[in-house]
Amino acid sequence: MTEVQADQGAHALDAADVRAKPRRNRDVLIALAAFVILALLPMVFSSKFLLDFVIRCAAYGLFATSLNLLVGYTGLTSFGHGMFFGLGAYGFGLMMQKTGVSVPVAFVATLAITFVTAFVIGAICVRLKEIYFAFVTLAFQMLIHSTILSWVSLTGGDQGLRGGIPRPPFWGIDLSNHLHLYVTSCALLVIGLFLMHQIAQSPFGYTLRMIRDNATRASFIGIDVWRAKLTIFVLAALFASTGGVIMALFVSGAYPEFAYWTISGEGIFINMLGGVTTFLGPMVGTVLLLILNDTVTRLTEYHGLVLGIVILFFAIGLRKGLMDFVIEWYAQRRDDRGK
Amino acid sequence: MDLDALTGCLASSACLVTQTTSGFIIGMLLFLVAVGLTLIFGVLKVVNFSHGAFYMFGAYFAMTAYQLTGSFALAMLCGAAGTAILGLVFERGFMSRVYGADVLMQLLVCYAFVLIFDDVVRMIWGPEFKSMGMPAAFQVAPLFIAGGVVPPYYLLLIGVALAAAAVLGLGLARTRIGKVIRAAAHNPGMVSALGINTGLIYGGVFALGGMLAGLAGALAAPVRSLTPGMGFSVLIESFIVTVIGGMGSILGALIGALLIGMIRSFGSLGFPLFTEGLMYLFMVIVLVSRPTGLFGKEVA
Fold first, then answer.
1. Max CA-CA distance within chain A?
2. CA dist., res. B164 & res. B151, Å (int)
3. If you average pLDDT over each of A8-17, A81-90, B14-23, B231-240, which comes out highest?
4. If both were cysteines, with which of A133, B33, B176, B222 could A128 make a disulfide (CB 3.0 to 4.6 Å apart)?
């Protein structure tokens, strides 16, 4: 992909094993601190709008960050990652509406369904390269979207899953309470990000970067490329699905748009906006896009026009995501000072 | 699912003719869009995600020209020429700036223009459905072939698309410009070293691709309703066509477009709600068995 990524990979690789343990402890602390700050936020600002915003960030952020595990780390440009977001929303929504199981059971069952689906679809897709991979994932996404639209008796067709999702309290958590939903979403976000960061920093994560940079070389030194790609495809799907579950809880339903290809398109856009070379780039992109969407929609009816121009600024002007730009600028400045 | 309707239709020659004709016009329109897409990919190695917008502009240009002049021929000309100019400006002004960059950046520029173009159409022509109406010359009694209804306009549409395919195929194979384009697709560095302006070729190919999509839009304008965002479903379908046929293959685009046309036409009888699903299923099956499409070459 870019030289920066290759450079970063090379720098970090030297010390990766040595520092693995202390780094994990540090990550746990950072994650805990982030969670505490997010959880205390409602005490300082009690605006419902802000809490809603954070919940939406959690749903899309998990989705976008998991997509970056494929796009940025492995070089797999999936155009169909949104199908797992939709699958999470529908799987969880249907489970709660039709079976009456408890929330944690439905959550785990949704992840199990996602696991099986992603395994089957991934096994087919990851054989293909580049643009063909992009298209076959897109085709699977649209296949799932078409199935949702045509299986009216189960999914409600284009009306989506309506009538609200029942949320029986569990372990003292009542998700119909807005504050409880907020804290749960934050917890899922922080845990999800923590786990994904561990994956990215693990030796397996470095294998993925190697596959991205030179798959042939990776297979020569004995790495089963197909298996590694499939593993990350399935793992990323699980996190995207978790994002879908948060979304289903937030809107108390699931709609075909959640499984439409535009969700995948937005995910790619979020990644490009925030930058793909840093772990938190997609989170930055999510916040940017949601703020952009909210303000632009309020200001003008031509919000595609404005959004399009902003995208052009990033694509033609910066030629990289915001975090990439900042990091490069910072590195440049440090180098200059070194001289 | 309604398999009775499908088998019933297959048994009746009237229905068979009607459905085949409708499959043909879907296929031919798709072919015109897809062949532009495949040409641009073949030469510029760019997946033009904004290609559907050219189809949309072709239709709107044709409608406006027809309303102003009342001439069907001028409407077609405006649809094709207008999008050709648009294609040239788009390629020289924006796409050419991201050739060296990441593929994702190219996609992003296209995605930005999909959003921008849709809103521009909404600003100029309004958000509601428009219709161009069938020109008077074609408001005549339909032909009956083996009991099936075939409107004369459909024959014109199929004829024009086939003619475009023939001109394009022969032009690329036989003419000097065609040879230069094929050479540029193969080795742009060598072509530019020979003193040929590759920027001009890239712009020209993009304009040609845009023109073909615009022509498809103009041809579709009398029989489809016009709306901002109409390019989108066409774009996705023409992607399926190019991927099934093999990226960069003109023959593949033709075969793929006809296959998708027939799947849509007959699928709508047997699986009314799952017609789109059938297309995607077909694409998955093709890609799984032949990863580079039916007529695609192995990529290194």
1. 69
2. 21
3. A81-90
4. A133
- Burial class of residue A209 (count of CB atoms within 10 Å of its CB; 0-12, 13-18, 19+): buried
pTM of the model: 0.82
* Residues paired with residue B240 on neighbouring β-strands, in sequence order: none
Tell me, what's the pLDDT at A22? 63
- The conformation of residue A170, written as its DSSP 8-state character, comes to B
Q: Is residue B46 within 8 Å of B180, Cβ to Cβ? A: no
Chain B residues inside the 8 Å CB shell of A261: 236
Give me the pLDDT at residue A133, please: 84
| pLDDT score, position B55 | 94
Q: Cβ(B251)–Cβ(B295) under 8 Å? A: yes
Contact state of B287 with A307 under an 8 Å Cβ cutoff: no
Place of tokens 């693995």: A20
Count of residues in chain A:
339
Place of tokens 């995207």: A240
Q: What digits encode the pLDDT tens for the residues B32-73? A: 999 999 888 888 888 888 899 999 999 999 999 998 988 888
HSE-up of residue B193 (Cα within 13 Å, Cβ side) = 5
User: How far apart, in Å, do the first and last CA atoms of chain A sit?
Assistant: 28
CA distance linking residue B265 with residue A133, whole number of Å: 28
Instruction: Please give the structure tokens belonging to residue A86.
Output: 């939709």
Q: Do B277 and A268 touch (CB under 8 A)?
A: no
- Evaluate whether B282 touches B275 at the Cβ level (below 8 Å): no
Length of chain B: 300
Q: B222: exposed, middle or buried (C-beta count within 10 Å: 0-12, 13-18, 19+)?
A: buried
Q: Is the pLDDT of residue A196 over 50?
A: yes
Would you give the DSSP letter of residue B296?
A: P
Q: Are the beta carbons of A77 and B103 separated by less than 8 Å? A: yes
Q: Write down the pLDDT at residue A64.
A: 93
Across the interface, whether the CB atoms of A150 and B287 are under 8 A apart is answered: no
- Chain A residue closest to B95 (CA)? A316
pLDDT in tens, A26-44: 888 888 888 788 777 777 7
Torsion angle of the four alpha carbons A70, A186, A19, A2, in this order, in degrees rounded to the nearest 10: 30
Tokens 């004829």, located at residue: B159
ipTM of the complex: 0.78
Please check whether residue B283 touches A, CB under 8 A. Answer: yes
Euclidean distance between CA atoms B245 and B241, whole angstroms: 6
CB A291 within 8 A of CB A307: no
Q: Give the pairing type, strands B148-150 and B143-145.
A: antiparallel
Contact A115, A107 (CB under 8 A): no
* Residue of chain A whose Cα is closest to the Cα of B118: A304
